[in-house]
Amino acid sequence: xxxxxxxxxxxxxxxxxxxxxxxxxxxxxxxxxxxxxxxxxxxxxxxxxxxxxxxxxxxxxxxxxxxxxxxxxxxxxxxxxxxxxxxxxxxxxxxxxxxxxxxxxxxxxxxxxxxxxxxxxxxxxxxxxxxxxxxxxxxxxxxxxxxxxxxxxxxxxxxxxxxxxxxxxxxxxxxxxxxxxxxxxxxxxxxxxxxxxxxxxxxxxxxxxxxxxxxxxxxxxxxxxxxxxxxxxxxxxxxxxxxxxxxxxxxxxxxxxxxxxxxxxxxxxxxxxxxxxxxxxxxxxxxxxxxxxxxxxxxxxxxxxxxxxxxxxxxxxxxxxxxxxxxxxxxxxxxxxxxxxxxxxxxxxxxxxxxxxxxxxxxxxxxxxxxxxxxxxxxxxxxxxxxxxxxxxxxxxxxxxxxxxxxxxxxxxxxxxxxxxxxxxxxxxxxxxxxxxxxxxxxxxxxxxxxxxxxxxxxxxxxxxxxxxxxxxxxxxxxxxxxx
Length: 484
Ligand SMILES: NC(=O)C1=CN([C@@H]2O[C@H](COP(=O)(O)OP(=O)(O)OC[C@H]3O[C@@H](n4cnc5c(N)ncnc54)[C@H](O)[C@@H]3O)[C@@H](O)[C@H]2O)C=CC1
Ligand SMILES: O=C(O)/C=C/C=C(\O)C(=O)O
Prior knowledge:
Belongs to the aldehyde dehydrogenase family. By secondary structure, the chain is an alpha/beta fold. The protein is built from 16 helices and 23 strands.
């Protein structure tokens, strides 16, 4: 049986306290995960602090960048191992992990290594009161030991999205992968040793949130900043922990994202786009679309077309050729999603398609598969329209005017992402500016440029990462003023 060990100070460490990792596609146990306790967290923090004072802390930015390029190259060299580990943990389609998760895992190191090497800091010259001259310039230094708390939906991609810039800026990191997805973070420890990243720079502690590694990391006074992706309620708990010591947080939290389709949109592209944004990764993407608003003249045609697309998705395990929809991550998450499927019916939804569990052959009958599901006819107050479900489902409602679409899209506590479909540039600009979100895609979805700001408004997050915005979080900026 595979053992997922902690990675502390360059060594793989067993703890004797283990929990099971099960495969989402058939619910079989595939590994034992070694849970870290307070002692392991203390050891990792001490090693992280020592690394800041050692070779890593003294290393030039050019050498750091070379090492991070080597990390990316090593991930690519071991691409198949990372792919297999991610597929085993998540059950997602092979095509998805091989085109998005693993390549982005490598790219996150290269992009931020290059940004840190090339982005200047500000400098000003001023006249002093006595007519002399002074110059000031900004210098960046690492924040320190960063706690990186990760979710299970895009495990390697989201973890390296934080670890890449944190290390590029000269910090050390302690990663707590989700209890559901321990594999790729652990494998990355082997990569760090292989390319010569000093001990204590990248560390991995396994476990849960409250009363376990997650809470112990976020409460530890030796952690200088916390970056987290996950549920909004968890963000609130982490923020409370970070208040002690006034430590900075960077949060990318939940969403209840709208898709807005205008009657003038390229119909086929809009249907294909919403199919992806509602069902990709079995709906387990924080940027996904769970509320779709379609302009009335094309409403019926759009509902029928999305139904056809949903029903054509092949449901199955990662390795099934042409599979479009994998399982949900866990039995617990399946119960949550099916709970919303039941609530939708209780609240009077018309079930356009899905709403249940597909018939799966053999061992896959034990897996966490659910049907892609579309509803219409619910009031905007219904729980499935207000709350993040994180499953392969969406509600579609008609709208008449641009103002109405904007009001509907904004009527949520969340503010992460929107996708707008129109061929009118004026409409696109107006709507994009009026929507209260951190990310607005027009005629696209999940199109990423890693140099741009990424994050959520309202209850969907605090701060932005990406490009130079990541440097703002992962460094302290010092102003140095010199009287000439
Ligand atoms: N990217 C997103 O927006 C994500 C949203 N979700 C949503 O969250 C729901 C619950 O999924 P979970 O995996 O339980 O998400 P979660 O937000 O509870 O967990 C994410 C990470 O935070 C850790 N964690 C939990 N409580 C903590 C605490 N008090 N202190 C420190 N670390 C803590 C977990 O161990 C995990 O590593 C899902 O059903 C889904 O709706 C889940 C994953 C990602
Ligand atoms: O950084 C990205 O490209 C994707 C981010 C996606 C999430 O944060 C999520 O689904 O949780």
